[in-house]
Design a protein that fits this description.
By secondary structure, this protein is an alpha+beta fold. The chain has a domain at 8-124: Alpha-Beta Complex (Ribosomal Protein L22, Chain A), CATH 3.90.470.10. The chain contains four helices and six strands. Strands 1-2-6-3 form a four-stranded antiparallel sheet. Strands 4-5 form a two-stranded antiparallel sheet. The longest helix has 61 residues, at 126-186. The relative contact order is 0.14. The model is unreliable at 6-11 (pLDDT under 50).
């Protein structure tokens, strides 16, 4: 399915690894919008975008992305969390020409286009990794504060539930007493 080239190249003075899918049976014109969506995204986010994309080429691009990530982790020792899609492009491949018979003995041509997909993943810089880590820590602190606030609110809500159940039982008793009084008056 894929011809892989996991060589280490220097693009924008970063460590980067690439993967290439040759002769993918889709036109480059159809692959480029999907590639534009994942360019400069983290590997996790790009994988999510491809998973929920409705275009059929997203499966091929997803395989190419996973291959590039595997090349980076196995060949270069870079963890997946530190990678982003630095480059991705689709070049036109050879076109297979076929003919379809038409009315009055004519024939129309059909072009079955192919393309070569390339995905390059690079490692984030140290400053970017530190910024991501501080954002994650702030997010965790915010979640902890919200969970603490929720836990202090829970006893009040339990008391409200207890009060409401007591009120319901008191109302049921008063309704039963009223029914008994109505029966006595009816007799």
């Amino acid at each position: 399915m894929a011809s892989l080239d996991g060589s280490l190249s220097k693009i924008e003075n970063r460590e980067s690894t690439r993967s290439v899918v040759r002769y993918a049976r889709v036109s480059a014109h159809k692959a480029r919008p999907v590639l534009n969506q994942i360019r400069n995204k983290s590997v996790g986010r790009a994988d999510e975008i491809l998973a929920f994309s409705e275009r059929s080429v997203s499966d091929v691009i997803s395989g190419c992305l996973q291959s590039a990530v595997a090349n980076a982790s196995n060949n270069d020792g870079i963890p997946q969390e530190e990678l982003f899609v630095s480059e991705c492009f689709a070049d036109e491949g050879p076109t297979a020409k076929r003919f379809r018979p038409r009315a009055r003995g004519r024939a129309t041509s059909i072009f079955k286009r192919t393309c070569h997909l390339t995905v390059v993943v690079s490692r984030y810089s140290e400053e970017e990794l530190e910024a991501f880590q501080t954002r994650a820590e702030l997010r965790d602190e915010r979640k902890n504060l919200e969970s603490e606030a929720d836990s202090t609110d829970e006893p009040e809500s339990k008391n409200k539930k207890a009060r409401s159940s007591k009120e319901e039982s008191v109302e049921e008793e008063s309704v039963e007493e009223n029914d008994e009084q109505n029966e006595k008056e009816a007799k």
